[in-house]
Design brief:
Length: 359
């Protein structure tokens, strides 16, 4: 197409314009790579194929490691059954090996901790590090998941290999439901492979030569693949409900320890916080401290945290575990069968002192 009037005005034709246009870039030439005799070798000599010899997950701590944390069982209120179970499986066998031999009992195994949010599962896993006299390895999800096909399973395998190579060792999985999902609910094959790998690694953790204790925690026990509950895997499941009165007394004492608290009788506060999780109790103390601090700033006088203040904050707060119990009720009803997980939760719900009205 051309416009003679416009060409006259510009003083040049469309043909002239084409002649002065820059030459188009040459087509890229398909260059041949220099021939290499050992293509196959290069492919298989991938430096990332095997982890370096001293590869360690981020949170692997030997006994005495200063970064291991100072939280111990003394910082966790209640959960006496769980504390004793962990001691039985890893602490006592190291203290009394001959006794364990005489009774034919082995070190390690699998414990599943489950219950509503904020009741101290993660705190308990951290306390295990401060408590047990052996190696400790906490698995971070970011260390496991990998977009490359097969790498996620291999990472999980490496974690277990590290634990086995450093036995006796406690291996801890927080939020277990993200790794041990029910395979019937999984669509992607990669995730299913991971669950299969996990089941495979759990097999034989009870054998004589492994001596590893695997502790998994979850607030969604119904989302786990039932195969994890088979004897020899997570065969011991311990329910961590909201703290009962003696446990609340311990937790209140722990939280009151480092704060300017007026002398008070705990009984009334223990009663007023029935159904509260440990996290709810912490919130009550934090909020009361905030209010007392604000009063101290405005009056210029030290203001202690009083029982009245704590009770007022507690009464205005409703337990955060309520929605969890409502959801759990539905799951427990759907789940038929003898699984002790659901039996324990049903038992807790049916106990008169734990009814919703009183919580
Ligand atoms: N039994 C307890 N003793 C002392 N403090 C507790 C206890 N339970 C909970 N807490 C307090 O509540 C906080 C939250 O608890 P934690 O993170 O352990 O809950 P969780 O059970 O892991 O919850 P989630 O299921 O949401 O992961 C703790 O850091 C601690 O301050
Ligand atoms: Mg947690």
């Amino acid at each position: 197409m051309s416009d003679p009037a416009l060409e006259r005005e510009l003083g040049r034709t469309a043909r002239d314009a084409r002649k002065t246009a820059p030459a188009p870039a040459p087509e890229p030439v398909n260059q041949e790579l220099p021939p290499s005799g050992n293509d196959q070798d290069e492919f298989f000599d991938d430096p990332f194929d095997e982890p370096p010899y001293d590869w360690r997950p981020e949170t692997f701590y030997a006994p005495g490691d200063p970064e291991r944390g100072r939280v111990t069982f003394a910082d966790v209120g209640g959960m006496e059954e769980l504390k004793e179970e962990i001691r039985l499986k890893i602490t006592y066998p190291l203290q009394f090996p001959d006794l364990y031999k005489a009774y034919g009992r082995k070190t390690g195994g699998g414990i599943l901790i489950y219950g509503p949010p904020g009741c101290g599962k993660t705190l308990m896993l951290r306390a295990v590090a401060g408590e047990v006299p052996c190696n400790y390895l906490a698995v971070g999800l970011h260390e496991i998941f990998d977009p490359y096909f097969g790498s996620t399973e291999r990472n999980l395998h490496q974690i277990f290999e590290t634990a086995r190579a450093n036995a006796p060792c406690v291996l801890v999985f927080d939020d277990l439901d993200s790794l041990a999902q029910d395979r019937r609910q999984i669509r992607e094959s990669q995730m299913r492979n991971l669950v299969n790998q996990f089941l495979h690694e759990m097999d034989g953790i009870r054998s004589e030569n492994q001596r590893i204790l695997v502790i998994g925690a979850t607030n969604q026990p119904w989302a786990l693949d039932p195969a994890f509950r088979r004897p020899g895997r997570f065969d011991q499941a311990i329910f961590v409900p909201p703290p009962d009165a003696p446990a609340r007394a311990q937790i209140i004492e722990l939280f009151a320890k480092d704060k300017p608290i007026a002398d008070f009788d705990n009984a009334e506060l223990i009663e007023a916080t029935n159904g509260f999780s440990g996290a709810d109790l912490k919130w009550v103390f934090d909020r009361a401290a905030e209010l007392a601090l604000s009063a101290a700033i405005h009056t210029g006088q030290p203001v202690p945290i009083t029982l009245e203040l704590l009770l007022a904050v507690a009464k205005a707060h409703s337990p955060s575990t309520q929605t969890w119990f409502e959801g759990m009720h539905t799951h427990a009803q759907q789940q038929e069968g003898p699984d002790s997980i659901f039996n324990d939760m049903r038992k807790f719900l049916n106990a008169p002192s734990n009814t919703k009205k009183e919580r």
